[in-house]
Amino acid sequence: MATYARSVRRGLPRVAGGDPWPPADAMPVTADGSDGDTAPVDAPPAPAGASAPAPVEVQSPTVEPAAPAVNAAAAPPPQTMAPQARVRRGLPRVPGGEPWPPADQAAPASPVPSPAITDSQAPAEAAPPPSATHDRAPAVAEAPPRPSAPAVPAAPAGEGVALRRGLPRVPGGDPWPPAGFAPTVAAEAEPIHTPDPAADAVAPVVSEQPPAPPAEVAVPVATGPRAPLPFTPSVWPGAAASAPRADERPEPRRYGPFTRLQWAGAVVVLGAGLLVAAGMAVALVRWLLSTQWGEGFLAQYPGEYHLPEGAPVGFPAWLGWQHFFNAFLIILIIRSGLQVRREKRPSVFWSPRGTAKRKISLALWFHQSLDILWLVNGVVFVILLFVSGQWMRIVPTSWEVFPNAVSAALQYVSLDWPTENGWVNYNALQQLAYFTTVFVAAPLAAVTGVRMSGVWPKNATTLNRLYPLEWARRIHFPVMIYFVVFIVAHVALVFATGALRNLNHMYAAQGSVDPGAYADNWTGFWIFVGSVVVMAAAWIAARPLVLAPIARLFGKVSGR
């Protein structure tokens, strides 16, 4: 009798650092096969989980070892099932679940060949026990010898199904288990049945029932997260995988709420709308001034009124210099103010020599330094205005200024601009604009700027409650917008109402009572061009590289 030991396939350990699972002695299985000897063989009892019953079931009474009939040949069962093997369980199907398959699932039983009976064996008598049930066939008293096919030996151990190999047991080792074949048992040849009339006459034929089909086990599909790869990835997507496809266009860059194309479209649409509105306004005002009421209004209020007696004529040289210096400072103040407003994380700081803890950004220091110079220049300008009597040119001295301002505005809108000579007198609209700029907008900018600066006392509780910081911030920026609008309108009207004459008045201090006296003089124009070049250079040079050495003269400059 040959015995083949079937090794248990072991998997990964159940705990970190443990032994492979299952243990080596968990499920030893032995396959017994017939070697052709005539030794009697006791058929093992069929397991409870066997799924294929034998076609003819013969039950013999219990025989003592001393009985001579034991050595006789009994009617062997055609097929006997091997003992049921325990199912090998693996990893769980879902995280945190039980090992799969379940522990109560039985493995399919494999048939074990019965020993073949030779012709030399003696027939044995078999009688049914008294407790035999009614559905079992009675045994034959004497069965003649039947020829049977010789037993088929089991397949050699070196032949069979190749072992399934898994991960190595040590890093860099070979897959486990080693390469080989699983020992298999050769299929048993069906014995050749010779019909025997005598036996058929004695023993009734037992109806053979078809074996029950094996139960189908439903394998659940894992719905949880997928298990990680059993290997380290060595190939990664190249540049072509991350490159944008032809049909995927990149998102256009936005400047504020719109892209560049959207801003261009908005400017075109808004410009077209403004042109249409301006054309309609010009047509409406022209029609209004052509009426009888309009003609009478222009005759009564031509747009200007006479100045008081003793008002000066012309502009002194100091006024031209003050005008240029004021324009130079206000341009840089607007630039530095916008930089302070946009700056989120300053990179350069300035602190006074005596107080190192008080730090402000270099842009804010530049803005406040320009404000101080602008305030000093403004105070000097106002003092000289009242000393020289030039204040009567920009300060209204009669209530007629308001209807004359309306008349001048209507004439500007109708494009039939009033005849003026700034060397002698401003029109009412200009006078109100200059008065508002010098005596209203400039003080508002100064007062709100001081409230937001470090000069303001922080511990003055009553003063801070009466003049909150939020009020200053809400007023300061709109005042800056007013200055920008005033500068644009002022420069546009200077060039539109006689550029050479007006530039001579402001920059060269040249003019006459006759409006056309200096209409062809280019002196003031070239001085204006030089001032524009100086202002542009100062705008470009207002950078930390240039400002830091100047700031070190008044304090300490440090970085982040």
TrEMBL record:
<feature type="domain" description="Cytochrome b561 bacterial/Ni-hydrogenase">
    <location>
        <begin position="316"/>
        <end position="501"/>
    </location>
</feature>
<keyword id="KW-0812">Transmembrane</keyword>
<feature type="transmembrane region" description="Helical">
    <location>
        <begin position="263"/>
        <end position="289"/>
    </location>
</feature>
<keyword id="KW-0472">Membrane</keyword>
<feature type="region of interest" description="Disordered">
    <location>
        <begin position="1"/>
        <end position="182"/>
    </location>
</feature>
<feature type="transmembrane region" description="Helical">
    <location>
        <begin position="432"/>
        <end position="454"/>
    </location>
</feature>
<keyword id="KW-1133">Transmembrane helix</keyword>
<feature type="transmembrane region" description="Helical">
    <location>
        <begin position="372"/>
        <end position="392"/>
    </location>
</feature>
<feature type="compositionally biased region" description="Low complexity">
    <location>
        <begin position="151"/>
        <end position="161"/>
    </location>
</feature>
<feature type="compositionally biased region" description="Low complexity">
    <location>
        <begin position="195"/>
        <end position="218"/>
    </location>
</feature>
<dbReference type="InterPro" id="IPR051542">
    <property type="entry name" value="Hydrogenase_cytochrome"/>
</dbReference>
<dbReference type="InterPro" id="IPR011577">
    <property type="entry name" value="Cyt_b561_bac/Ni-Hgenase"/>
</dbReference>
<feature type="transmembrane region" description="Helical">
    <location>
        <begin position="475"/>
        <end position="496"/>
    </location>
</feature>
<dbReference type="InterPro" id="IPR016174">
    <property type="entry name" value="Di-haem_cyt_TM"/>
</dbReference>
<keyword id="KW-1003">Cell membrane</keyword>
<feature type="transmembrane region" description="Helical">
    <location>
        <begin position="525"/>
        <end position="546"/>
    </location>
</feature>
<dbReference type="GO" id="GO:0005886">
    <property type="term" value="C:plasma membrane"/>
</dbReference>
<feature type="compositionally biased region" description="Low complexity">
    <location>
        <begin position="65"/>
        <end position="74"/>
    </location>
</feature>
<dbReference type="Pfam" id="PF01292">
    <property type="entry name" value="Ni_hydr_CYTB"/>
</dbReference>
<protein>
    <submittedName>
        <fullName>Cytochrome b/b6 domain-containing protein</fullName>
    </submittedName>
</protein>
<dbReference type="GO" id="GO:0020037">
    <property type="term" value="F:heme binding"/>
</dbReference>
<dbReference type="GO" id="GO:0022904">
    <property type="term" value="P:respiratory electron transport chain"/>
</dbReference>
<feature type="region of interest" description="Disordered">
    <location>
        <begin position="194"/>
        <end position="218"/>
    </location>
</feature>
<feature type="compositionally biased region" description="Low complexity">
    <location>
        <begin position="92"/>
        <end position="109"/>
    </location>
</feature>
<feature type="transmembrane region" description="Helical">
    <location>
        <begin position="315"/>
        <end position="334"/>
    </location>
</feature>
<dbReference type="GO" id="GO:0009055">
    <property type="term" value="F:electron transfer activity"/>
</dbReference>
